[in-house]
Design a protein that fits this description.
Strand 1 and strand 2 form a beta hairpin. With 204 residues, the chain is mostly beta strands. A four-stranded antiparallel sheet has the order 8-7-10-11, with no helix packed on it. The N and C termini lie far apart (40 Å). The protein has one helix and eleven strands; from the N terminus they run βββββαββββββ.
């Protein structure tokens, strides 16, 4: 019940500088009766923002009254990566030793926000639900840890896809839960949900 809401949430997105990425933002209203209404949209051209500084943006909502105030910083990623199985970070003995030293007991209080390192190997899925009329699906996998999100490529027309990718995340909160969701790519439409698993970091 506010026309001037304050969220004060921070999200991390990962993009590659050789792509021209637009950040799409939608503002929705929810009246708690399973009814949602779009209050406006706006876009930010990420490639046009200055690097290594916090940019304060006041973005007017398109075709709707109101504006959105955001702080956006574009900076090189640290600790986050996507790689093939043959070149995963912990597979290199010297890199593994550096990581072990970084998180050893004597360095525990060096950076209170950098408390760990998670590596996830996404190998394959088996016997997925068929989402298309052809009896197949076009599955891809999304990994979310806190407000970090990474995803695999799509394997088209396959119910037993193999991704064989390695994802690394910096851990900022030991109570976070790794959520792995499989979706069916559906062209310009929102992807269809095929399944999900949640893994608390404290269980690893």
């Amino acid at each position: 019940k506010s026309a001037n809401p304050q969220w004060r949430e921070q999200f991390d997105f990962h993009y590659f500088s050789d792509r021209k990425d637009m950040l799409d933002i939608e503002v929705w209203r929810n009246d708690n009766k399973k009814h949602e209404e779009l209050l406006g949209t706006c876009q930010v051209d990420v490639t046009a923002l200055p690097m290594k500084q916090t940019n304060r943006l006041e973005l007017p909502l398109e075709k709707h009254p109101g504006s959105l105030l955001m702080l956006i910083a574009v900076a090189p990623c640290t600790g986050v990566s996507i790689s093939d199985l043959c070149v995963c970070p912990l597979g290199d003995p010297s890199e593994r030793q550096q990581i072990s030293q970084r998180y050893c007991i004597k360095n525990s209080f060096w950076d209170m926000k950098d408390i760990g390192f998670l590596q996830v190997k996404v190998l394959k899925a088996v016997d997925l639900l068929a989402a298309d009329f052809s009896g197949k699906s076009d599955p891809f996998c999304v990994l979310e840890l806190g407000n970090d999100s990474l995803q695999t490529h799509t394997v088209y027309k396959n119910l037993n896809p193999e991704w064989n990718k390695v994802f690394t995340f910096p851990i900022k909160d030991i109570h976070d839960v790794l959520e792995v969701t499989v979706f069916d790519e559906d062209g310009d439409k929102p992807p269809d949900f095929l399944g999900k698993v949640a893994i608390p970091l404290l269980s690893v």
